[in-house]
What does this fold into?
Amino acid sequence: MRTLKLASLTALAAGVMMAGSALADPITIKFSHVVAPNTPKGQMAEKFKELVEESSVGDQVDVEVYPNSQLYGDDQVLEAMLLGDVQLAAPALSKFQKYTKQLQVFDLPFLFKDMDAVERFQNSETGQKLLTSLEPKGLIGLGYLHNGMKQLSASEPLRVPSDAAGKKFRIMTSDVLEAQFEAVDAAPLKKPFSEVFMLLQTDAIDGQENTYSNIYSQKFYEVQPYITESNHGLLDYMVVSSARFWNDLPDDVRPVVEKALDQAIAYGNDIAAQENQEAKQAIIDSGKSEIIDLTPEQRQQWVDAMKPVWDQFSDEIGQDVIDAARAANNEG
Ligand code: LMR
It folds into this structure.
């Protein structure tokens, strides 16, 4: 009898200790991204960490931010997420084609007239539905994050599409972007973001497309003497988590974390345009890269050369999705 009592007391004590340690263990959210901290995405990630720390769940949730592909490149991060090794990421919308074809709409060249149109489309019923397009793969879309419009950088001036012919351009892992460069007889190469500087520096490639904030913070402008302000395509992100991780967050924690994320995304979206403007000015001030403005006629040549790409992908994306995105241009 006495032994039995002792045994059950020991079991009880062990149970209490286990419950205690489970309570004390913080939930870790590793946020992995590929850009520098001084970019819209880098700033948004830091803001999210700060807001969670200040919140009512600050002692239960630990946010760790890993910038500059320190933890994963965009080609591995979603797989790592599904394995539970990382909990948050915000890859470019161009990097999801293995998981869904619909998000390819965002890559269509010259689709959005400005960032207000992008915002309207993302907030529309179709745009919001696209946030759920990754769910069959176990990923949950938590919001869109802006960077901005892409520009073309190169080792030689690009004014008309024939200037790009025969040149090698690094692209993200997107068949639409591949078709876009093939449409001007250039040679696109799908490469991770972390390799771009080295590829440019060693002349393994001639150019690339990106926003001013990425061109500046990754120092591409130091090895690319020309940047054509083409605004030909969009670089935006989707903030994602694994559905399993997100839905398993305790009921008193998830809404607080979600609110912090929404606020951080709103903050990132607010500063994105200014970050790009400041990066452009810093590039001009450096004197290392010349920014080329296109005449309306020159720009129209790029539009005429690249727009046929839309038809190549309308079946995969869905004509209704493309039409909804186009409609957002006229609602402003
Ligand atoms: C790129 O690979 O060029 C971009 O997706 C990097 C980023 O996340 O802005």
Q: What stands out?
A: The longest strand covers residues 226-242. Strands lie at 27-32, 61-66, 88-89, 139-154, 168-171, 187-190, 207-210, 226-242, 290-293.
